[in-house]
Design brief:
InterPro entries: SAWADEE_dom. It holds the Pfam family SAWADEE. This is SAWADEE domain-containing protein. One of its GO terms (molecular function) is chromatin binding. The protein is of the alpha+beta class and 371 residues long. It is 31% helix and 29% strand. The protein is built from 7 helices and 19 strands.
């Protein structure tokens, strides 16, 4: 598996070990991350007692994923605009570090053949999603690009990692996380943690003027897990978020969800990703997402959102394999666009009915009392 380092935000091939932290109560273990090809002094250690919330545990899990696979010359045609990849960038000679990027453009060239083997000569313009080159463009050859693998389901995780995460979750739950008073204190601690340069959120979470923002997504597949949404966003945009899914009525064929972000940069990136007309997010059954609202979230809403998110998260049904991005120009995109337009018309109709309801309610309430 690979791990995104806290020190330089790059991805590395790693193995893990667990060890005691000397704490007899709570989570008395540490997770030691050992980097392949590096000496022990480069190890990074996560102490279980530093994971104060489910959010911290989720952030840690998102730093691990299956090894990215080197693209072969014959797979050149599979690299297209909008594809998320993991690619090498060398700031200095003999210093290759891997970061996630989005393919911004492709310059196709005729391939060469040497000794009967095909060699790709195309160029790929990448927009870096994190790390020191975040937001900049650079040109890369196929030999520097790897295919990102989908996140693993819980039962497919490395047993040591799964055990450590499970132990951390149990500790969080046992420390009164669900108590409303404790929740308020925990939110303050997480805001402080997000601003700390030594925290696990370094480079990922920057406060939006003290007020988190929420993006409402309609037309989700019924039964989708909030963790599926979080993993999907991390897979494509390389930052963590919080998510929850509201219950649906029996006759409704879809669900509604919300994505919560504390970082202005990440909020803008996700908004642009969801609004990009060049692609559509769909479920494995072809149901397209529709972003219907972006709104600030104040303290009065936070407790309800957090409680429901954690409750619904336990009903996990799969991984982000349940979701995918379809690109403009494909048959899947054409079908998804028709379905998205159809649902948008439904949403607009419902909105007009709500407006009419408000008017009619106001009219009835203002009627004079009968004598």
């Amino acid at each position: 598996m690979e791990f995104k380092s806290y020190k330089d935000d790059a991805w590395y091939d790693v193995r893990i070990e667990t060890e005691s932290n000397g704490d007899s109560g709570g989570n008395g273990r540490r997770l030691r991350v050992k980097f392949s090809g590096f000496a022990d002094e480069h190890d990074e250690v996560v102490d279980g007692k530093d994971l104060k919330s489910f959010k911290d545990v989720d952030f840690l899990r998102c730093r691990f994923r299956p090894m990215s696979v080197q693209l072969q010359d014959t797979e050149c045609s599979q690299v297209h605009k909008g594809l998320s990849v993991c690619a090498a960038h060398s700031a200095y000679p003999d210093d290759r570090r891997f970061y996630d990027a989005i393919v911004d453009g492709v310059v196709r060239n005729e391939h060469r053949f040497e000794n009967g083997e095909e060699q790709c000569t195309c160029s790929f313009i990448l927009s870096w999603k994190h790390g020191p080159y975040y937001g900049s463009l650079s040109e890369q050859a196929l030999e520097n690009i790897c295919r990102i693998q989908p996140p693993l389901a819980v039962d497919k995780l490395d047993p040591l990692l799964a055990s450590f995460l499970n132990s951390a979750r149990k500790t969080v739950q046992a420390t009164g996380f669900f108590d409303s008073g404790a929740r308020s204190q925990r939110l303050k601690q997480e805001t402080k943690l997000a601003r700390s340069t030594s925290s696990h959120l370094k480079g990922d979470d920057v406060d939006i003027g003290g007020v988190p923002h929420m993006i409402i997504i309609d037309n989700l597949e019924k039964g989708i897990s909030p963790l599926t949404i979080m993993e999907f966003i991390h897979y494509h945009l390389s930052f963590p978020c919080q998510a929850f899914v509201s219950p649906s009525r029996v006759l409704e064929s879809y669900a509604r969800g919300a994505i919560l972000l504390h970082s202005k940069r990440n909020f803008d990136k996700l908004s642009a990703f969801l609004e990009n007309p060049d692609h559509i997010i769909i479920s494995s059954r072809g149901r397209p997402w529709l972003m219907t609202e972006k709104t600030p979230v104040h303290d009065t809403h936070m407790a309800l959102i957090e409680t429901f998110r954690l409750t619904s998260q336990t009903r996990r049904t799969g991984t982000c394999n349940e979701l995918k991005v379809v690109i403009s120009g494909t048959k899947e995109y054409s079908t998804a666009k028709q379905l998205k337009d159809l649902f948008e018309r439904l949403a607009n109709h419902i909105c007009k009915l709500h407006q009419r309801l408000v008017v009619e309610e106001d009219r009835i309430l203002q009627l004079p009392d009968e004598v």
